[in-house]
Amino acid sequence: MELSAAKSALFTLPMLLVTAFMLSAGKLPSGFEHWLSFAAVLAFFNTCFFMILRSGKTDRWRAPVFIALSLSFVFTFIAHMLEVRGTMALKDSVMLEGGAPFCHVVIPQTLIPLLVSRTVIFPGTITGGYAAIGAMLFLWIGFSLALGRGWCGWGCFFGGLDDMFSRLRAAPVINRINPKWTDISVAVLIVTALASAASLSPEYCKWLCPYKAVTEFPAVQNLATLIQMLIFAALFIALVIALPLLTKKRTQCGLFCPFGAFQSLANRVNPFEMRVDTQNCAKCGACITACPVFAMTQESLAAGKTRLNCIKCGKCADVCPKQAVYHHVKMTENRPSLAQRLMFLFPAFMFLTTITGGMLLQAVRRIVHFAGTGSFC
Amino acid sequence: MEKLKRFTGWMWASACLVLIPAMFVGENKLVPALARATGIHVSARFTGGEVISAEECPGYKVFIHRPVFDGLLGKRSTGFIQVDFVRTAAFPPEFEQTVSYDENGTHSFTIKIKTAGGAPRAEISSKDSKVLGLGMLADGASKLMLRVNIRR
Ligand code: SF4
Ligand code: SF4
Description:
Chain A is mainly α. In chain A, 59% of the residues lie in helices and 4% in strands. Chain A has 17 helices and five strands. Chain A is globular, with a radius of gyration of 21 Å. Classes of the chains: A mainly alpha, B alpha+beta. β2 of chain A pairs parallel with β1 of chain B, so a sheet runs across the interface.
């Protein structure tokens, strides 16, 4: 659904105002470094949004911002840890003082104790501090109601990593992966949620999270912590780098992440979905091949829908030669329309840029500072 | 009926459009209020549980937490007691603290801490068979935190 340059500019205008307000926090930037980073990030966001509208390609212009989110998150997180703690290792003392940053992937592991006794089994703080539990839970509930598993395409600060690696090769080396393998993530979800409830400790974070390799990990003090470190590194290399390169799929997100599996349920409670116009569909299967998380299959295509694990990235719509795949607002007319597309794009892109904004600004500012002074701080 | 359904769909989508910016704007005020209203809190297995007694010593203060046996649905057979030694000046090179953790003082242990020459070390001694030994010793920026494993 391409738009004219004038219409695209018109619809980009509200996004420009929102992102300018959000990036500046209502105050004009002061100093050269602040101005430069502000202008660069603002231009980047709004060029991408303009191009989504102008080209009609959602995923192609979503991906740069989503990948920037993950890269700037990892960069600023590591910088913060090195400044505050002097190390990426999570020491026992930090955990006992509630200093571990909370992330959304912990949420399904904490749910059973939270519902049973209102306790959160995580060494963080409910409010205040860096990445507090309350703020993350709040944003997650709001996002889930609005955009469901769109989180994994428009909000997750880890997802851009396997997304990035899945795009680096022109063609996949491994072509056929049975969508049934996505059940692994459901199994990981069930096992880690039950194990965490039994031990009252987030077991996926302790043993299986590949992203620990690029954020924080337990200080190696004994055999157990050494094994944990090796598992994190092996899973990161396999699921976030190697398999996405070989398959052109987001294998960590599609096959393993328990939060992703859990978040699929949120697709039931929000108004947006992808639909296929089966009359217009050429049955070429391009959307099935392109889908990074195995959410489009022959069966779902025939039914004119996606599977429940769709992350609403829009890649299937981008590649469809017949423009038969479209963003749909549930309960409204079953045909592609600009209104339905805009209704989804505005909140999704607004969330993505709001989450990305602060971290990307900080990353750009540090890089500009480094170019001028040779130091990141 | 069809019209009403469509109208509901559009209203639902519009609500989401408002929800996303409202969430970011309201976050700072709403999160503390919601946390208070729902009563969610971090598990005592991480915080160490409520402090039940405090004592001032030269160079440091001692905070003794309640015994933590918290399980998902009830109490567990084993747990721990956390004791924090908060620096007020420099720690003495060696010091001791006796902790009684029941009302009549039958269950107790003594912690001996050495801070001289490298990382702090702790030894636990007790005649009580319910005291299982040192679970964890963590050296924070302003305090030493120590967990002693115990049985109910
Ligand atoms: S599947 Fe997991 S890692 Fe991937 S985008 Fe979703 S939450 Fe993030
Ligand atoms: S079905 Fe389409 S929108 Fe959904 S995850 Fe797959 S490519 Fe993305």
